[in-house]
Amino acid sequence: MTDTCVIDEASPAATDGFAVQVRHLRKSYGSTEVLRGVDFDVRYGEVFCLLGPNGAGKTTTLEILEGFRPPTGGTVRVLGINPAAQSARLRERTGMVLQECGFPRLARVAELIDIWRSYYPNPRPLGELLDVVELTEVRNTQVRKLSGGQRRRLDFALALAGDPDLVFLDEPTTGFDPEARRRCWAAIENLRRLGTTILLTTHYLDEAERLADRIAILRAGRIELAGTTHEVAARAGLATRISFTTPSALRRGQVVVPDGIDLAVRGPVSVCHTDNAAMTLRRLLDWALENRLGDLDGLDVSAPSLEDTYLQLTGPDPEIT
Amino acid sequence: MTRSVRLAARQALLEQRSFWRSAEYALFTFAFPLMILLLIGAANVGSYLPGTHVKNTTVFVPSILAFGVIVAAYVNLGSKVAVLRHDGVLKRIKTTPLPSVAYLGGLLASTVATTVLIAALTGLIGWLAFGADPRPGGLPALTGGLILGIVCFATLGLAISSVITSAESAGPIAYASFLPIAIISGVFDPTFSGLPQWLSRLVAAFPVKALAQLMQGAYTARPFPAWDLVNLALWTAAGATFVAWRFRWHT
After folding, report:
1. Are the Cβ atoms of A118 and B7 closer than 8 angstroms?
2. How far B118 CA sits from the closest chain A CA (Å)?
3. Rounded to an integer, what is the distance from CA B225 to the centroid of its chain?
4. pLDDT of A321 higher than 50
5. Which residues of B touch A120 (CB under 8 A)?
6. Is the CB of residue A86 less than 8 Å away from at least one CB of chain B?
7. Is some CB atom of chain B closer than 8 A to the CB atom of A313?
8. Dihedral sign, CA of B201, B206, B211, B214?
9. What does the pLDDT look like over B10-65, one tens digit per residue?
10. What are the angstrom distances between the C-alpha of A180 and each of A184, A212, B28, B87?
């Protein structure tokens, strides 16, 4: 057993109803432990994001789910199938976008998608695939002449050719310029609209925040936190930040900081952090009213962001000495 | 089974279409052997092998036939598979339910098509330009030599692909690993002789001279090529063993 911090609502007894189920997954290469007891579930139809810094074990996890590597310990079910035992059956129902997978350079776009369709029992129509990834205009272009972003979208088209129930995307936008990322995201959102379950890894927070229904933060071979973006931020125990323009009376020392509120006056801005935003806010406004400070100009309440959570979790890595 | 055959055929068609789109592949595979055939062939017109009535070109044309088979089956397939592996195309294929045998079958079928075409062109040009044609009753020997040559050198091509570690070095390594042997095997010079005994023994151990002699046997009467057949069979077995041991779908 492991002491992993698992925050997920799935009961260990349930084996159906999840597109992906991972329990106590461990993987070692020699004496190096890459995964130290990973647990998470992916529901049908959702976009699930495995977020973590480089070297956290994201790709290893994905490769085990895809049946490319056997796990050292734990159980894994993908669409109810054990990938290590029945990878061939799994291939018919999954699509994969791997890191650094090339194309036959001399094939044309439509030609390549079309032969990929022939590999699957129930392929998606060619025209639809070209539409989803916005490659219709370059359908007769040789693959070697495509841009990086177009190639990645061709990756998607190939991954979708078999009309998969589940798509794995391993760091789909790493190294892209903003425009290529935007179109890549659009393609992923198109996929989601088709009802495809997507398991995606990334080390970009904005990508996870934008695309994912649920997120799991993987760090040093363990899931640190899992849940929706808001849940993850809330469960990390980060405080809500309340700030407002420092009233001149407060700056001049004519009023005192309210009792029981940890208010920091930083020149023109006053800031406090709280675990109970509603109560703190009420007391601040009461205090302002009592001292005739008005409605507190520039009042801002910000929930802890995924970025705050992520930076707190991944900042100092205790595993690295 | 039929599904695999159908998929392999489709793969082979795509490979062929791609092959002809690339000037470098097509040029190297076809232009190089045919250029050698015409240039060196022209230098041998009117000459006879020392002490015989056999024309130089009667030996030279089938030697270049063997050379073409090796370029198409060994150099081309070997460097192609190395590049496919290096680029991650083989790995991508493994993400699909396509049976490995169908994919490799397609690559091999395309290689066979290319090899047969270059052999046919070499034979045709050798006949038109130099009047060299198979001896009466030589066609079975020619067909048999062609089949054995393709099987042996395609296997060795798959084997060498596992040794090549980068896409850039694929072509050069494939060529460099057989051109010197082809030269000292006398493929480019029908009157080539004078090797020290140890070297000619070494040459006889390689499959290049064996295939060239099988092809020559289709053009001019030679004793039954027992050793050449054994040689090719042994190299095929060695190559297949190496492939089974070392072949990888990704780097």
Report:
1. yes
2. 21
3. 19
4. no
5. 96-97
6. no
7. no
8. positive
9. 999 999 999 998 887 788 789 889 999 999 999 888 888 888 888 888 999 999 99
10. 6, 19, 37, 22
Q: Express each pLDDT in A53-75 by its tens digit.
A: 888 889 899 999 999 899 999 99
Residue B97 to residue A119, Cβ atoms within 8 A? yes
Q: List, as ranges, residues 128-147 from A with C-beta within 8 Å of B.
A: 142
A221 Ramachandran zone, left/alpha/beta (phi>0; psi -120 to 50): left
- What is the torsion angle, in degrees rounded to the nearest 10, for the CA atoms of residue B222, residue B223, residue B226 and residue B227? -70
A68 touching B (Cβ < 8 Å): yes
Residue A119 touches partner B, C-beta closer than 8 Å = yes
Across the interface, do A91 and B96 touch by the CB < 8 Å criterion?
yes
Q: Do A119 and B21 touch (CB under 8 A)?
A: no
**For the sheet containing A197-202, what is the strand order?**
A94-97, A166-170, A197-202, A47-51, A214-219, A222-227
Dist CA A2 CA A57 (whole Å): 17
Nearest to A18 by CA among A44, A46, A48: A44
pTM of the model: 0.81
pLDDT tens track for B50-64: 888 888 889 999 999
B96, closest residue in chain A (CA to CA): A91
H-helix or E-strand containing B105?
A: helix B100-130
Q: Are A176 and A134 in contact (CB under 8 A)?
A: no
**Radius of gyration from C-alpha coordinates of chain A:** 24
The nearest CA of chain A is from the CA of B137 a distance in Å of: 42
Sorted by where each begins, the domain ranges of chain A are: 240-303
Q: Are A187 and A131 within 8 A, CB to CB?
A: no
A to B CB pairs, distance under 8 Å: 61
Rounded distance, CA A95 to CA B233, Å? 41
Task: Give the closest of B18, B88, B98 to A119, CB-based.
Answer: B98
Could you give the CA distance from residue B157 to residue B32 in angstroms, rounded to a whole number?
A: 18
